[in-house]
Amino acid sequence: MNRHAIVEELVAFGATVHTCSSNEEKLNKCLRRWESLKLPITGSVCDVSSRQEREKLMEKVSSLFNGKLDILINNAGRALFKSSVDVTTEDYSLIMATNLEACFHLSQLAHPLLKASGAGNIVFNASIAGTIALANLSLYSATKGALVQLTKSLACEWAKDNIRTNCIGPGVIDTPLVERYEEFKSREASRTPLGRNGEPEEVAALAAFLCMPAASYISGQIIFVDGARTVNG
């Protein structure tokens, strides 16, 4: 399992990347490995559910890239497998702050940097759960559905600034988000025409493509990476 597939895919295509994680120990371990490979990757400790930490992160990004940014990948997120009647106020606040508020606010903060680049790209990582119903994922699904609409709105609103906005809708991907939920993973694989869950690299490949000149006329779209799960009912 490659937990950093999007970072490494972008670097493979020549990007210089600044990433973030709420876990300082894990981030530093990754940064040491990337440094040993001489990859142009830096990182910050950031809990994206915190407004102050988001602002600090984007100040760092602006400083590193001289006030310009070509690509913003909104990839951080939390899952919550709970019946709707069992969702607490604390659950609601955390999932909304991490999965939706953070994406909206980071996009706001990044807007002047993306505009300054002359050809900015935003990619939201949503989910098939933003389009189809999955059991015990109502709150998570609500945030992902909101990202789908946010993608469409920003694509139209910021087109004048030459900023493209797109959204990826992954199916069940073998990442830490779902590694504890084997029954769920097996059930979803059985409902997927390709007969398996996805790999992080399969999502990363699309994320990188959407930021390339080859995708210069693609904006406002949600593209599913789901083995045909969403069209299978």
TrEMBL record:
- Give the UniProt keywords, A-Z: NADP, Oxidoreductase
Tell me which stretches of the chain form a coiled coil: none
PROSITE patterns in the record? ADH_SHORT
One of the record's GO molecular function terms: oxidoreductase activity
Please name the Gene3D superfamilies in this protein's record: NAD(P)-binding Rossmann-like Domain (3.40.50.720)
Domain of life assignment: Eukaryota
Q: Which reactions appear under catalytic activity for this entry?
A: (10bS,4aR)-noroxomaritidine + NADPH + H(+) = (10bS,4aR)-oxomaritidine + NADP(+); (10bR,4aS)-noroxomaritidine + NADPH + H(+) = (10bR,4aS)-oxomaritidine + NADP(+)
Where are its TM segments located? none
Q: What is this protein's function per UniProt?
A: In the Amaryllidaceae alkaloids biosynthesic pathway, catalyzes the conversion of noroxomaritidine to oxomaritidine, a precursor of haemanthamine- and crinamine-type alkaloids, promising anticancer agents. Can also, to some extent, catalyze the condensation of 3,4-dihydroxybenzaldehyde (3,4-DHBA) and tyramine to produce norbelladine, and of isovanillin and tyramine to produce 4'-O-methylnorbelladine.
Which family does this protein fall into? Belongs to the short-chain dehydrogenases/reductases (SDR) family. SDR65C subfamily.
- The protein here is known as Noroxomaritidine/norcraugsodine reductase
The protein's organism comes out as: Asparagus officinalis (Garden asparagus)
Q: Write the lineage as a comma-separated list.
A: Eukaryota, Viridiplantae, Streptophyta, Embryophyta, Tracheophyta
